[in-house]
Design a protein that fits this description.
Elements (H helix, E strand, L loop, with lengths): L2 H26 L4 H28 L4 H5 L8
Length: 77
């Protein structure tokens, strides 16, 4: 998994999170530039933490039970 994969994963986490936080700020009625800057900063930090933990798990070869269960049937034959 190269740098492009991790950058894409970061953007896939940061952009929707920014949109959610910006919508929350807009609904609250605060539309100042500082509020949207704060939303962007928090989205960047949260996405960074998410990608860092995933990258560390990948580098150490740790298993993820929830990740492994995706796509598997819940019924045992």
């Amino acid at each position: 998994m190269g740098a492009a994969f991790w950058i894409k994963r970061y953007l896939l986490a940061a952009v929707p999170l920014f949109a959610i936080l910006a919508i929350v700020e807009y609904v609250k009625g605060s539309t100042a530039a500082a509020d949207f800057l704060s939303a962007a900063l928090w989205a960047a930090i949260a996405a960074g933490i998410f990608v860092f933990t995933q990258f560390r798990r990948y580098r150490k070869g740790l298993e993820c039970a929830a990740c492994d269960a995706v796509g598997k049937s819940s019924k045992q034959p």
